[in-house]
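Batch job 17 of 40 flagged for manual review because the log was empty.
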Amino acid sequence: MGEDFTVENEIATFNLGKDRKAFIPYVRKNVKTIEEQFYNTFENVYTYQAVNEWKHGQLSLMPLAIELDHGKKVCITEADLEDYPGMYLFAPILVQKRS
């Protein structure tokens, strides 16, 4: 094995090309900060809505299923995790408006 290291920041960006509908598993806690949303049971129901209507300040668990054209869907999730689970999705990263 190599030397130990610390991941200080990790960002994934998804460009959906246009507004799409998705099945979004929001973190359902009545909390005041983003940080407090990280403490949850990872059990939830899915909200079906347009991605551009993402609830402001609300994190999403995984998987996130997004509808594409012609009946296709894409699923964003984690796999093959080892000692580092817990990726969340957040609207400013997921939704990028075009001007």
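Reviewer: the log was empty due to a logging misconfiguration, but the result itself is present. Strands lie at 21-24, 47-50, 59-60, 64-67, 73-76, 89-90. Unflagging and moving on to job 18.
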